[in-house]
Amino acid sequence: MGASRSVSIGQVLAELQQEFPDISPSKIRFLEAEGLIQPQRAESGYRRFAVSDIERLRYILTTQRDEYLPLRVIKERLDAMDSGRAGSGGAGSSGADGVPAPVAMTRSELLEAAGADEELLTELEDYGLIRRARHYPAQALHVALSAVALREYGIQPRHLRAVKAAAEREVSLVEQVVAPLVRRASREPALRTGQAVASLIAALHATLVEEGLNDAGLACAPPVAGTYPVTAREAHPAPGLRSASGR
């Protein structure tokens, strides 16, 4: 589509539907009502979307899907980008490739977005699952969301230390693999290799967990290999677990 050409809402849906199956005219109208997108209007009153509008919409939907951010936080990031603060290194800063960097949330914003309380966040920080900071990246939100869901099963932050330790060992293995590549002039080979190895290790880890559940007689109709969606609790709360120290 040419840079100066505009399209209808139906054409926008056709372009984005495969990547975002849940997109609909009502969702696009809602995002417009919330001030996140501002398509032009034809003389007939119908919305007309330029290339920049579609890319902005794609960015909003991607951020919602991948970073679980509330619309208020996404709008703040977009406002910062629109006002030129994106290049100042703030929450809406952009990387070298022009893609906005992960948003930085305050403590209260993180608690609101994750549905967590202060006690849970403090424990996650105490056990090293989230780094204590004035502003938190999107990864902290992912951890907090998982912790909120796991707490419904009686799993507390102290029980997740083994998960943290396993992740650190896997990172160490990736670092060993890419070590010979980081000394090159370009970091691209190291980045590509690191991502590839990390993905393979994560898939293997998930497969081994599934195999262990099967051996324990806990397997059911499994999801796609390597995926464990964070969902609301469907059973009665389980009693709290106890650590090896009895805490």
Please describe the topology of this protein.
Blueprint: H1 9-16, H2 25-33, E1 40-41, E2 47-48, H3 51-67, H4 71-82, H5 107-114, H6 118-126, H7 138-151, H8 161-182, H9 188-215
Antiparallel strand pairs: 1-2
Task: Give structural notes.
With 247 residues, this protein is mostly helical. It is 51% helix and 2% strand. The chain has helices at residues 9-16, 25-33, 51-67, 71-82, 107-114, 118-126, 138-151, 161-182, 188-215, and strands spanning 40-41, 47-48. Strands 1-2 form a two-stranded antiparallel sheet. Helix 8 (161-182) packs antiparallel against helix 9. The N and C termini lie far apart (60 Å). Residues 85-102, 222-238 and 243-247 have low confidence and may be disordered.
Q: Count all strands and give the number.
A: 2
Could you describe the largest sheet, including whether it forms a barrel? Answer: 2 strands, antiparallel
Shape: globular
Query: Could you name the CATH class of the domain at 1-65?
Result: Mainly Alpha
- Helix amount: 40-55%
CATH architecture of the domain at 1-65: Orthogonal Bundle
Q: Oligomer, anyone?
A: single chain
CATH topology of the domain at 1-65: Multidrug-efflux Transporter Regulator, Chain: A, Domain 2
Report, as a whole number of angstroms, the end-to-end distance: 60 Å
Main-sheet strand order equals 1-2
Average pLDDT figure = 80
Q: State which percent range the strand residues make up.
A: under 5%
Count of alpha/pi helices: 9
Unreliable stretches covering 5 or more consecutive residues? 85-102, 222-238, 243-247
**Pairing-aware structural class of the strands and helices?**
mainly alpha
Order of helices and strands: HHEEHHHHHHH
